[in-house]
Design a protein that fits this description.
The protein is an alpha+beta fold. The chain is 61% helix and 8% strand. The two termini are 51 Å apart.
Amino acid sequence: MGTAGKRGLITAAVTVVCGITVLAAPGTAFASPTPTPTPTSSTAPVVPPLPPNKDLEAVREKLESLYHDAAVATDAYNAAEEKAQKQSAQLVQLAKKIVEGQRRLDALKDRAGAAARQQYRSGGLPPEAHLMLSDDPGQFLDGAGRVLQGQRATKAMLDEMTRTQQDLKQYAADAAAHWRELEANRKAKEAARKKVQKQIAEAEKLESRLEKQEKERLAELERQAAQKAQTAWLDTGVLKDIQGKASEQGAKAVSYATAQMGKPYEWGAEGPRTFDCSGLTSQAWAHAGRPIPRTSQEQWRQLRHVDVKDMRPGDLVIYFGDASHVGMYIGDGTIVHAPRPGRTVTVAGAGSMPILGVVRPDA
């Protein structure tokens, strides 16, 4: 509500309070008008009324939009972080290959050098020349075999040197490409981080403007909106069709996720003290022995899709059209999830948010 609107409400409230005070005072209903007493410092301050529900509903929708955008940016941050980790690991492996390849090339060069020094000690004549100068048929035949072996060994050594040099060139090119990708993902991660922080800061600033009673009413509106959505989902009769039992791994994942209840949400976090939504689900399934993608969007893209009516505890429920949120189904129409900044890991109705679909990590 704008400043002018609040001032108008305050003025109206003061007028009503004064009117009620005059009418309630005994023996003054028909008395002659008397001067209005001058307010003193002991006069109680007038508390401005709360904004109507429709205004708080607009605040709720705005907060929902800000936190949704923060969730999208968080997924982008997590994806860039995951890619950066993979590229860093690939760079380490390439560095090891380059070091090993260089050692092999050095060893081959040492062998080539030893052959050159041997030829120098034999007067500079190649083995073929010594063979032609031999008058002993047996020595000739024996020497011919050694020459052929030497030629094959020399060719094999030269071929190996060529392959090693080509491998080193390819390793260097791959390392340069991975480095460029790593730098690009670092920039993407930084841009996503700034967007997350901006969206959360704007949401927190909006919430900080609310009085205690307004915050309580806003929380009630949030609960009502979630309950309304959950009731509408249940009214479709979907729950009577959901009878799946958790797999052994699914039960372990559920056990891990529910054990984190009460821990704070923190964007980009994957435990053990704080979580974001996909950090919770990915860690739960990793604990169950089944690593899955880090982000809700990749979980939706890579894991097997199942019908809502076929879901079972441990399955992941993906929310919103952009797959920006995820929770774990735990049975009886409920999920456990890490909602948003300022909240903790908790249980909620599976239909309390728009469902995009369900995926099964241990299909």
